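WARN retry 2 of 3 for item q-0093 after timeout on previous attempt; input resubmitted unchanged.
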Amino acid sequence: QVHLVESGGGSVQAGGSRRLTCVASGDTESTKYMGWFSQGPGKERGGVAVIYTSAGRPYYADSVKGRLTISQDNAKNTVSLQMNGLKPEDTATYYCAANSGILWFAATLPPAAFFVFWGQGTQVTVSS
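OK item q-0093 returned
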């Protein structure tokens, strides 16, 4: 089991920045991918950014490339999401996710179904 706790959400004006952090505990050595997913009002949960923790390889959704950056601190078992140039459409609950050790061989962002462990989410609200 892996326990995930997100922090860093809040309200920000368009063009502003937020940094989300996810702290993992438990059987973290078994996970190979951690990432961030967002779910806006009335929308399905979708991938934002994922990192292959063994190599630090990032994957990004096309809509966030150049604005959001995912990073990891293996010593602290944390994954962070630096969000710059925020837009009102970025308003959502952001969830941290971790997988169970299965490898992902595609070049695209792994889908939500690839992940087993989920945090409770942190809300980001971007006002215009």
